[in-house]
Design a protein that fits this description.
The chain folds into 2 domains: about 1-100 and about 115-145 and about 235-275, Bacterial extracellular solute-binding protein, family 7 (D-Maltodextrin-Binding Protein, domain 2), CATH 3.40.190.170; about 150-235 and about 275-330, Bacterial extracellular solute-binding protein, family 7 (D-Maltodextrin-Binding Protein, domain 2), CATH 3.40.190.170. About 45% of the residues are buried. The N and C termini lie far apart (about 65 Å). The longest helix is centred in the first third of the chain and has 22 residues, at about 1-25. It has helices at about 1-25, 40-55, 75-80, 115-120, 125-135, 175-185, 195-200, 215-220, 245-250, 250-275, 275-290, 295-315, 320-330; strands at about 25-35, 60-65, 85-90, 140, 150-155, 170, 190, 210, 225-230, 240-245, 290-295. The strands form 2 sheets. The protein has a 6-stranded mixed sheet, with helices on both faces. Strands 2-1-3-10-4 form a 5-stranded mixed sheet, sandwiched between helices. The protein is an alpha/beta fold.
Amino acid sequence: MKRTLAIVMAIALLMMVSVSAQAEKKVTMKVGDIENVANLGAKALDRFGEVIAEKSDGNIKIKAFHASQMGSANKQLQLVKSGTLQAFRGSISWLAQFDTGFSLLDFPFTLNSAEQAKIVANSPGLNRLNDKLAEKHGIRFVTAGWTRLPRQILVNKPIKDVEELKGVKLRVPEVYAYIESFKAVGSSPTPVAFGETYLALKQDVVDGAENHVESLYNMKWYEAAKHLVITDHSYDITGFIVNDKWWQGLSDGQRKMIVDTYDEVDEWFVTENETLQQHYIDLMVKEGGVTVHTVDKQSFIDKVVPETLVAAEKKGEWEAGMWDEIQALLK
């Protein structure tokens, strides 16, 4: 009798496990990306796909579209809104087109490290903005990490101080913080799609561009502009920006697995990222004859912060006191 009962219970347990496995639906997560496949961020996305496929026993499959295959970052965010893409993997600050408060993530010359960028991304203020974004636009960011190298300036003439940027046509992403910040130093910020920047530099549509050295090298922008100005002006934290309806349709376990796997790959990313700054600078010097310039960073800070970040809060670009709230966290 006891043996029969044990067999029945074992069969029932197996049936429950089977039903549970069937209930965990298979998911294909189409993710857009603008980075060159040689960049660490693109490699991290591929690694993420491999790890989560194994952890989920194939129930979660990542289909990545690298190198702007799905268009510019702004175009891809529209595809996420429509549900054509489930996610965009890129800088969270791209969300500033929907709410300028997201620009607090990487206002140039305000953060000093990747760790500080992560603190801001996970701050209560950004979480409030994220919930409003989901309610109003149907998208939200659900991960934060894979923080790129600090951004620098690459131009076609020597730049030794902030005054020499006056009138320089500088390619910037179509993001509020970058446009306003480079206006403040007297340059002429010119939004150009990431994938179109090389041609814009070659044809003198712009005099230079700003980005982290990994992209400056891998996108070959250094072939057209030979002066690298070390400013470390922004730490670009990235995440999955997802279609919220799709995200809420996942099981709790699937959502947790995506977030946990992103964080797991972030540990690998940080280790890999440590040596890349000097590596890519050396390559540009050796292969392209690039000259490296250092500048007084404080002179940039003195111009940019009062005229952009402080002024933006006074104009109501985000809720009053939000920057003070973030600064308290950073301390």
